[in-house]
Amino acid sequence: MSHDWSDTKSKFSQCLCPPGNGVFTVNTAQERKAALHQKLYGQTDNIDVLWQASLDQLPASEHKAAILGISSDCGGGILRGANWGPLFLRSALIEQQPSTTCFDLGDVRVIPHLLHDKYLNEGTIANCQKALYQNQDSAYFVSPLSITEDVCDDFYAQFPDKGIFGIGGDHSISYPLTKSYLKAKRERGIRTAIIHFDAHTDLLVERLGIDLCFGSWCTHILEFLPAPHHLIQFGIRSSGKPKSHWESTFGVKQHWAHEIREKGAQAIVDEVIAQLKADQVDELYVSFDIDALDAKYASATGTPEYDGMTPDESMLILTELNKHFPITGADMMEIAPFTDSSLQGKVSSETTLKEGAALSAFLIDAMNR
C-alpha cells in the first residue's frame, strides 16, 4: 500500500479504466458506452486520455463520494448479467438524478473469467498480468476482487475522509469493498456497522467449494466489524434456514421482509437506531442488493424474489438512519439490465434501473454530506 499520490495515481491508471469500460467488448453495447462518455466528457474519442487526466483532480475534488465500477459477475451463480450494472446505472443516474454528482474513479479492469487471485496458479497470473499490464512480472493483481481491495486500500490510505460508492457486479464485489472500508475505519478508531439490504443472507461459509462469492461475502467480513451484530440485514426472505439459525450461528441482526411489512418500516428502523446508538456506532456502510426490493420493482437481477421490500420502505429506513449516523461508504449490487426472468422485458429493466438510481442517488448524496 502506498501513501504517495503519484504512486497511487499510477496504480489507478493501470488497474482501472474509464467509466463504463469495465466490460471488455469489441462491438456489444459500444453505442451505450459512447453515450455515457459523451455525457461524462462531452466527446466519444480520446476517452482514455481524458479519464487519465481526470484522476489528477481527485485530491482537490470537493466530493467526498467517489464512484468505482466493478463489472464482474464471476462471483454469481444463478442468472448472469450484473457485469453491465456499472455502465447502465451510471447512465440512469445522469439522466434521472442530475443533481447528484460525485467523482468517478472509473471501472476496475476485469478479466471476466476470474474472481480472486488466490484461486489462480502462477502461470495464469503471469499470463493475465501480460494481458492487463503488458508485463508478466507486474506487481499488480489480476482478478476483480483482488484488484478492488488493493485499489480501495490505497484510496482510503490516501483519502481517509472520502468514501467509495461501488457499483457491481454481483454481490461478491462487496467483500473487498467492505473489507477495505472496515480496515481503514478500524485503524482510525472509528466504530462502524454494515447495513445490508438483500433477499438473501449471504452468510454461507462457501458455495460449491468457493469461499468468496455472492452467497458468502458477509461471512468473511464479520471479523473486521467491531462485533458480528454490527452487520444488520434488511429484507431477507429467501433462505433454507430460519432467522434464528443465522442470528445464533453468526451473531448478526436480521429484519426479514415480512417483519418490515407487519411491524412497519418506521418501527423497525427505530429499533435499529436504538441498537446502533447503544453500540456506540460512529459511521455506516450500506450495501444494497437490488433484489431486496420486491420483484415487481426489481426483476432485472440474477435472483429476483417476490414478497420483498418496497422502494418507499427502503428509502424510509435509509433516510432515518442517515438522520442519526453518517453514511460514509456504500454500494449498489446485482442490477443486471439484460437479464429479466419475469419476462417483462425492457419495461422491467427500466423500472429496476429507476429504483436503483433513486436509491444510489440518496446514498451518494448522503456520503457527500
From TrEMBL:
<dbReference type="GO" id="GO:0046872">
    <property type="term" value="F:metal ion binding"/>
</dbReference>
<dbReference type="Pfam" id="PF00491">
    <property type="entry name" value="Arginase"/>
</dbReference>
<dbReference type="GO" id="GO:0033389">
    <property type="term" value="P:putrescine biosynthetic process from arginine, via agmatine"/>
</dbReference>
<dbReference type="InterPro" id="IPR023696">
    <property type="entry name" value="Ureohydrolase_dom_sf"/>
</dbReference>
<dbReference type="GO" id="GO:0008783">
    <property type="term" value="F:agmatinase activity"/>
</dbReference>
<comment type="similarity">
    <text>Belongs to the arginase family.</text>
</comment>
<protein>
    <submittedName>
        <fullName>Arginase</fullName>
    </submittedName>
</protein>
<keyword id="KW-0479">Metal-binding</keyword>
<keyword id="KW-0378">Hydrolase</keyword>
<dbReference type="InterPro" id="IPR006035">
    <property type="entry name" value="Ureohydrolase"/>
</dbReference>
